[in-house]
Amino acid sequence: MKDTYNTIASPSPVILYKEKNSKFFGYAFPVTTEAEVKSHLEQLRKQHFGAVHFCYAFQLGTDTIQYRANDDGEPSNSAGMPIYGQIQSFDVTNILVVVVRFFGGVKLGVGGLISAYRIAAQMALEESEIIEKTIDVHFLISFDYKNMNKVMRVIKEKNLDIIAQKMEESCQIEIATRKKNAENTVDIFSNLFEIEIQKI
Questions:
Q1: What is the pTM of this model?
Q2: CA 90 to CA 80: how far, in whole Å?
Q3: Which of 32, 39, 48, 189 has the maximum number of C-beta atoms within 10 A of its C-beta?
Q4: Are 139 and 164 in contact, with CB atoms under 8 Å apart?
């Protein structure tokens, strides 16, 4: 069972690719939501006032993949898809790659555009630090305060991450574990007396 994925550690440094007087600025950002995608695009539009096209592709998710490729006014499939192709060839997810184009007065043709957007996206990804992350599953454990030691012992032994906790008479702890350990984690807590576990 695959329970890791690749993404980038932080936004890439800006790269510049030139083709027949047109300038292509390439960026890669780690993202987990479409709202983040929107926010990065808005910032780039402010930063590159006067640019003609803001073409991009993003991919979100690990088990179920969500992606979009946008040509932003360039001929159909000449910008967004070549950028998305680079996301696939670098095998990364939870990522947004944007290529901002300043038109230089010379038309590149569809073939020239595909090549320029692909190269700019590739350069941005090559400049990024690609890291491996685990796919985690989150659970909520509910129990009475008197069973606290039992629960904490398992969390410690199994090296589970505590995400949030509410410690009162009735307690709740949100934990995360790697996908491959999820079933085992459920079994352990389900077999403990007076302790409930549910996936969230």
A1: 0.84
A2: 16
A3: 189
A4: no
Specify the pLDDT at position 110. 96
Cβ-defined contacts of 74-81 (< 8 Å, 24+): 74/101, 74/113, 74/117, 75/110, 75/113, 77/114, 78/110, 78/113, 78/114, 78/117, 79/53, 79/55, 79/113, 79/114, 79/117, 80/55, 80/56, 81/57
| DSSP-assigned letters across all residues of 127-180 | TS-EEEEE-EEEEEEEEEGGGHHHHHHHHHHTTPEEEEEE-SSEEEEEEEEEGG
Amino acid letter, residue 76: S
Regions of the chain with pLDDT less than 50: none
Q: What three-state secondary structure class fits 59?
A: strand
Question: 104: which DSSP letter?
Answer: -
Q: Tokens 């129990």 appear where?
A: 143
For residue 160, CA distances in Å to 5, 164, 176, 198 come to: 19, 12, 6, 15
pLDDT of amino acid 167: 87
* Spatial distance between the Cα atoms of 10 and 82, rounded to a whole number of angstroms: 22
